TrEMBL record:
Record: active site: 279
Pathway in which this enzyme or protein is active: Nucleotide-sugar biosynthesis; UDP-alpha-D-glucuronate biosynthesis; UDP-alpha-D-glucuronate from UDP-alpha-D-glucose: step 1/1
Name under which the protein is recorded: UDP-glucose 6-dehydrogenase
Residues where substrate binds: 168-171, 223, 268-272, 276, 342
SUPFAM superfamilies given in the database record: 6-phosphogluconate dehydrogenase C-terminal domain-like, NAD(P)-binding Rossmann-fold domains, UDP-glucose/GDP-mannose dehydrogenase C-terminal domain
Residues noted as binding NAD(+) in the record, renumbered to the chain: 45, 50, 101, 137, 171, 282, 349
UDP-glucose/GDP-mannose dehydrogenase C-terminal domain location: 335-436
UniProt-listed InterPro entries: 6-PGluconate_DH-like_C_sf (IPR008927), NAD(P)-bd_dom_sf (IPR036291), UDP-Glc/GDP-Man (IPR017476), UDP-Glc/GDP-Man_DH_C (IPR014027), UDP-Glc/GDP-Man_DH_C_sf (IPR036220), UDP-Glc/GDP-Man_DH_dimer (IPR014026), UDP-Glc/GDP-Man_DH_N (IPR001732), UDPglc_DH_bac (IPR028357)
Family, per entry: Belongs to the UDP-glucose/GDP-mannose dehydrogenase family.
Amino acid sequence: MTNQNILAVDDATDRPRISVIGTGYLGATHAAAMAEMGFDVVGVDQDPRKVEALSAGRVPFFEPGLPELIEKHVATGRLRFTTDIAEATAVSDVHFICVGTPQQATSFAANLSYVEDATAAVAKNLTHPGLIVGKSTVPVGTAARLRLLVARHVPAGVGVELIWNPEFLREGKAVDDTLSPDRIVLGGASPAAEATMRELYALPIAAGAPVITCDLPTAELVKVSANAFLATKISFINAIAEVCEAAGADVSVLADALGHDVRIGRQFLNAGLGFGGGCLPKDIRALMHRSKELGAHQAAGLMQQVDEINMAQRQSVIDKTVVAAGGSVLNKRIGVLGVAFKPFTDDVRDSPALNVAAALHLRGAQVTVHDPEANGTARANFPTLSYASNPLDAAIGASALLVLTEWPELVDVSPESLGEIVENRVVIDARNCLDPERWAAAGWRVVSLGKETVVPAPAVRVAALV
């Protein structure tokens, strides 16, 4: 494999042409963002239905701002989609690998088959010098093995280089995170490859995004380490929440006080149901697995504790619900507000909210769910739950009401209106997102995590004058 003249396009004045392999959350967003930055982009996916939808400007998942961006650049002609990777590779100079790396079915290790297949397919179909750029989150050491894979498959005489440029997007804010990244990491890039990447990211660089150049292992570890740190911070505050409950302290006020320390910061110190989604859980488990392989047992042990604390939060909410329902949820109606793993997404992968709802259903509860965006994706995973189109319908006759995802419209829902239709005015605030005094004033018992339960003020009886 050579990195000589990796972008020798026909006209020296041409801008690099881009292919994006994989059009899920990462790939579709990256393809649209690159088109917005002025490049010609072709997105590749094996699913013809997804390609058809994206080609028509329809996004098969919820991500704010993305449908408009894709529709805009499909119309301008800068962005198109195909199932033909050979065609996409032939017309492109830079090839972004944006496929998934899910957890393996039989271990905590990442499944790298999609990354390997996509990289090999690009290498086989190269017709002119190209740059392969990995963006998927992978275990450290993967890129070095992929370079060997590329060398085996690239046609003779075709120059190619593989580098790593990890993604840092957040679901619900993916478009802004891609167009305005807080850092750009380039791993293993030659001077020619770095120059090409700086051209691709010229707009965010001009806006102040720092560029960090490093070796391949460091670039691979940056993303997974960032996720591991955020997960650790969440599990830390949830562990402290347990202490607060036992001692009668308030974890939210404690977190506010901690957050004023610039060494700590307030973000990700919200105690509650814990983290989920398609990134943090699988990434800390993959890091745990890879750390053990490398003999780094302290890191593996830390990730194990982070994972255990996070999973325990789900059981804590289930236990609080059982108590709120009178000791058993069997044949009791339970209203659930929110099942996406976080607000502003319809993603229910490893969602703690959906996990709790399903667990209560398995205990015999009649669970009715409402989520502003995730009813459809939740139903596809758990069709035996009941689904409501609004919060009031989810709460009808409920022995307990659970707020499991902190959507603004669920946080702001009227406790007075809900109080008129539930069987029992008790709410489990699993995200510590409600105003407990407001709910208590409406007659609700508010059960939070890491705080004392707030109960309604007793009615004042005035004796009649005789």
